[in-house]
Design a protein that fits this description.
Blueprint: E1 6-13, E2 18-26, E3 30-39, H1 47-50, H2 55-74, E4 82-86, H3 88-92, H4 96-107, E5 111-113, H5 116-128, E6 138-143, E7 148-153, E8 158-164, H6 168-175, H7 183-207, E9 211-215, H8 217-230, E10 242-244, H9 245-255, H10 260-264, H11 277-290, E11 295-298, H12 303-316, H13 327-338, H14 343-364, H15 368-380, H16 392-402, H17 410-421, H18 433-436, H19 440-458, E12 467-474, E13 478-485, H20 490-499, H21 501-507, E14 510-517
Parallel strand pairs: 1-4, 4-5, 6-9, 9-11, 13-14
Antiparallel strand pairs: 1-2, 2-3, 6-7, 7-8, 10-11, 12-13
């Protein structure tokens, strides 16, 4: 199979919980999530020391998988496209084959037990498809119940893949007997984890790692609680949000001293993580210290998403897991396809926008980083037409802000969405809440970028890719734009003239636009 749509369900049989994600993959649109479900089975409870899966837990696991399969079928997933991987607790259990055979007989599902290194590899595939990795390596870590996977990777190279048996359920079962956790037990967990991480931390220091990227339920729950504390209106998407070491330490000190009843009252804490959050907090605190991290951001994509990416790559006959991945551009293009964009028009507006940005740089003095954001805003400026032509610029802003763009910080998404919002009609105004909440430097960038986008959009008014190139000349009073075109440019000149006033105001120059046929 090499074309058309594929629906895949990926099931992760973890120590604490069973998760399933259902996605649809198609050309252009990429991977779109259809549904997701989880059940806190806690199949690893008690098994970490006994190495035996409890009979009741196994039965609960089978019951959950039956429900997952019904949902997958109802969502149109073919049986051969349902994949299931088992991790730490099942991997280590001496009776794992009994459970796997029980699952096969009662559900028909063939569960694959993966090694810790394979688990780390899948996590890497998932995280790098959601978070932009830098040229300098980052520390990726996924906190599970039985194990924690550690990956040191940059944008185009993986330096370390490993799995350590320091998961939160394991630490809870092995060390915690008091509530709240006693100082001596806290110290034991810290020392045990630090010893496990010593060699990896030395490697990270040698590579200059300063940022962590955390995935899994424990990390996401902690990040949601910290972010909610500074964003009273609530937190929806968490991807690429995070916290500094100082923010975490303040949160850590306030929570670690609480008993279970007090923790249960904390806003945003998952009821089933009331106990597990204790070793989770200690572990992240240890990781911050041992790896000398300055900040941790979170990835909402991890093992299950990595499983899906790897599986689909195999079906499509693509490598999928090798080489440098431009997830920002890929996710922008996928969002465009999902909104049935006019691709040639959007690409032409983007091309003209960056051409103007480059030649006007002596005036606007924006850093190259903003050039990339302008290009993406230009590519997506018209996607609001998917909802309605009228006021489509406002719909474009909403879709960009809620379109699950991958690899961008929340601030970058705010800038892109605002630039797209102002490609037509009224210019930026402090009366507009989403513009007003930006920092002054970012408002200035939106002013310049939206002004450029308005003219570029005008020069593509006929949707015919008429403008071949633009030459810009600047003096103390005026900016001259000389466009070379394929045909007479009456419609483009008329539109650009009507849209130039905002950039004139922002740059403090009169703009003269002329065109000649090549």
């Amino acid at each position: 199979m090499s074309s058309g749509k594929i629906r895949v369900a990926a099931i992760d049989l973890g120590t604490n919980s069973f998760h399933m994600v259902i996605v649809e993959e198609s050309k252009g649109k990429g991977i779109v999530e259809i549904d997701r479900v989880k059940d806190m089975i806690c199949i690893g409870r008690g098994s970490i020391s006994t190495k035996l899966l409890d009979e009741a837990a196994m039965q609960a696991g089978v019951a959950a998988l039956k429900k997952f399969l019904v949902l997958a079928t109802q969502r149109g997933v073919a049986p051969q496209n349902i994949i299931a991987f088992a991790t730490s607790a099942i991997r280590e259990a001496s009776n794992r084959d009994v459970f796997i055979e029980m699952v096969r007989q009662e559900t028909g599902l063939k569960v694959q037990v993966i090694s810790g290194r394979e688990e780390a590899q899948f996590i890497y595939y998932g995280v790098r498809n959601a978070v932009r990795l830098g040229e300098k390596p980052d520390l990726l870590f996924d906190i599970g119940g039985g194990s924690v996977e550690f990956i040191i990777a940059g944008s185009d190279h993986v330096h370390l893949l490993e799995s350590r048996k320091i998961g939160v359920a394991r630490m809870l079962e092995r060390f915690v007997t008091t509530d709240p956790v006693s100082p001596s037990e806290l110290k034991l967990i810290d020392q045990f984890c630090a010893a496990e991480l010593y060699v990896s931390a030395e490697r990270a220091r040698h590579l200059g790692v300063t940022r962590g990227i955390a995935s899994s339920g424990t990390a996401l729950n902690i990040a949601r609680m910290i972010c909610s504390g500074r964003e009273p209106e609530g937190v929806d998407a968490l991807n690429q949000k995070g916290f500094t070491r100082e923010e975490f330490e303040t949160f850590y000190r306030s929570v670690i001293k609480l008993d279970a009843n007090a923790r249960r009252k904390l806003t945003g804490l998952d009821e089933k993580r009331v106990d597990l959050i204790v070793p989770g907090l200690i572990l992240i605190n240890t990781i911050f210290r041992v790896f000398s991290l300055r900040e941790v951001i979170v990835s909402e994509s991890s093992l299950r998403e990595g499983m899906v990416l790897h599986y689909i790559s195999g079906i499509r006959g693509r490598a999928g897991s090798n080489g440098k991945l431009d997830i920002r551009r890929q996710s922008v293009v996928e969002l465009g396809y999902r909104c049935y964009w006019h691709k040639p028009h959007s690409e032409q507006v983007a091309r003209l926008s960056v051409m103007l940005f480059d030649q006007l740089q002596p005036l606007h003095e924006l850093k190259p980083h903003y050039r990339e954001l302008l290009e993406y805003a230009a590519l997506l400026h018209n996607i609001g037409e998917f909802i309605s032509i009228a006021a489509h610029q406002k719909h474009s802003q909403y879709i960009i802000m809620n379109g699950d763009l991958r690899g961008f910080t929340p601030t970058e998404i705010d800038i892109i969405s605002n630039v797209a919002r102002y490609h037509r009609k009224s210019p930026p105004s402090p009366k507009h809440p989403l513009y007003a909440k930006l920092k002054p430097t970012h408002r200035r960038a939106v002013d310049v970028l939206s002004g450029i986008l308005r003219i570029a959009n005008g020069l593509e008014r006929g949707h015919r890719q008429n403008v071949v190139s633009i030459a810009v000349s600047i003096d103390d009073r005026q900016i001259e734009l000389d466009a070379v075109t394929k045909f007479d440019a009456d419609i483009e000149l008329w539109a650009a003239e009507s849209l130039k006033s905002w950039l004139e105001e922002v740059l403090g120059r009169t703009i003269l636009i002329e065109a000649r046929v090549q």
